[in-house]
Protein 1
Amino acid sequence: MSHPATILPAPGAATDSFVRLRGVNKHFNVDGRRLPILADFNLDVRRHEFIAILGESGCGKSTLLRLLCGLEENYAGQILVDGVAPKVGNDEAGIVFQDPRLFPWLSVAQNIALGLARFRPDRAGVQRRVEELVALVGLSGFENALPHQLSGGMAQRVALARAIVSRPAFLLLDEPFSALDALTRSQMHEQLLRIREAADLTMLLVTHDVEEAVYLADRVVVMAPQPGPLRASVEIGLPYPRVREEAAFQHERERLHALLAKDELIA
Ligand SMILES: Nc1ncnc2c1ncn2[C@@H]1O[C@H](COP(=O)(O)OP(=O)(O)OP(=O)(O)O)[C@@H](O)[C@H]1O
Ligand SMILES: [Mg+2]
């Protein structure tokens, strides 16, 4: 099954949404069985919106991100990112996978520089930009380290640096902070919000952490455990910078926890 190109609008056609999924169906074949992952799935993301995605393990969050950057091409329905069907090599998208996926024989700096390779920048330009990113993710002094010399959290920060080094307009993050300690994680939250402000990013972040979702996102969407529509889409109406200790923050967090505890469809 593949997407019917004929119903896609012309590339660059004006749509209200930066990301638009309409009636998306996605399944895998496992052991001769058809395993449905997304069924009649719809989602719209506004330009510059920051969406956090929550959902039980195995509900299809990573598959959704792979569809959005063109790594999964077998689906039915319509997926548009900035007016066009996503495909690998699209300069606009950066992705951090659930595991860091670094090249083991390349150093931290070389792994990050890979994110710039397709732009063929000059050597000095690469070095400058890589240095900036190394500092941004707190890895100064580890430029020449190899991936096996890093902790899981450090490796994940290299993956984040590689994803944003080319200043993409669209950033997909699959649980990028799950291996970090609480302090580093909250430092990364601040960095991410700064990056977002500076770069006018549209972002989708998969997380299992409700507090992280409320702290970072404009809107939190909850995927259903079974293939189907979203369970919930919740606007977080708090201004930035958000303060975790404030009553309004805790209220939003409790509201989401309560939604997650319910079984029924809320959206
Ligand atoms: N390439 C594949 N081939 C077959 N089945 C797959 C493939 N990729 C994912 N799946 C299946 O699709 C379902 C959704 O997987 P996915 O990785 O998207 O879940 P997830 O929501 O990201 O889960 P988690 O929170 O554990 O990361 C799972 O049942 C998984 O086994
Ligand atoms: Mg996943």
Protein 2
Amino acid sequence: MRFWALVWFLLLPALAFPRVGLHDGFTRLVFDLPKAATYTVSSEKETLTLRFQGVRQAPADEEVDSDLVASYQVVPGASGTVVYVRLKPGAEAKTQLFDDGEAKRLVVDVVRSAPTGQASTPKAPVPAPKPTMNKKPPVVVIDPGHGGIDPGAVGYVVEKAITLDVGLRLKRLLEAQGIQVVMTRSRDMHLSADKRTDLGMRAAMTDSSKRNLFVSIHVNSAIRPAQGIEVYYFGETMSPSLLAQVIRENGGGDLGLQLTREARGVAQQAARDVVAQANLQFSRRLAQMVHDAMIGVTGAVDRGVQSAPFYVIRNARIPAILTEIGFANHPQEGPRLADPNYREKLAQAMAQAISKFLANGAFAQR
Ligand SMILES: [Zn+2]
């Protein structure tokens, strides 16, 4: 037991529980829960008490920079965790549970209390505001793989040019839908000449409560002829051929081996962590949606959705995926990737899937 308790505590800094989002008119606390978790909510005066069974979290006591929530306190117990949320005067909380059958997400929205006077009228449950209704649009991080001194895969096309082009097309399409976009790079550049630092800077953009989603774009290559589209979410893999690809995307050579080893360590820890697993289900769902959309519009070979220890998405606190949109060195697919119309199709499919994912409140909460 002691060992597992230690493991929990070592893991916990990577997980925000709750994740706190400041919005115009409301403050949102999101609790990612394992499938089997249960909870009760009670409130007394200005303290909201949430008792979670089957959830282990490290103690925390955090102030919140909000005019509605003063602080929250996380208190671990024998069989669960209690969270006390201290509201500011005149604030009230509304809770809503999202459950897609694989993971649960409890959303607590703290709003300004309505004026009293109709207290006897039973209130209908108020749905959590949908992102489209928020004044703050959802924020998507687009990561065009490689760049600058790092060309990535080279074949009929050069990976860094294709990923940037598709990334910029995706940016335009998402922005047209009112989604805010942050690019890890917007031109042919590396973020650092040192690949570890470069990937670390991209990865840092998955670690923010101000962003909703991260998509990394890559182009594949293979020694044996291969073609098709595959989409990844973070996790371990046992496939030696996939590991070779992961090592290449993680910087290649000795550094790629080292970063892959580190990412696999994170994946193995996450595999023992029900909360991390619950989080990864959202990334898996996003991966599936983006993958299906791209296969649907291109008719490309379906190489599936899998988990793999890609360094750039190893610590994501938001749904994060890595797409491999085709093989640079395949005699049919390489030239297809060189065609702007084909790249536009890929970007449209990604944009459609991402906006659909974000429109579903269960996934978009932050
Ligand atoms: Zn790549």
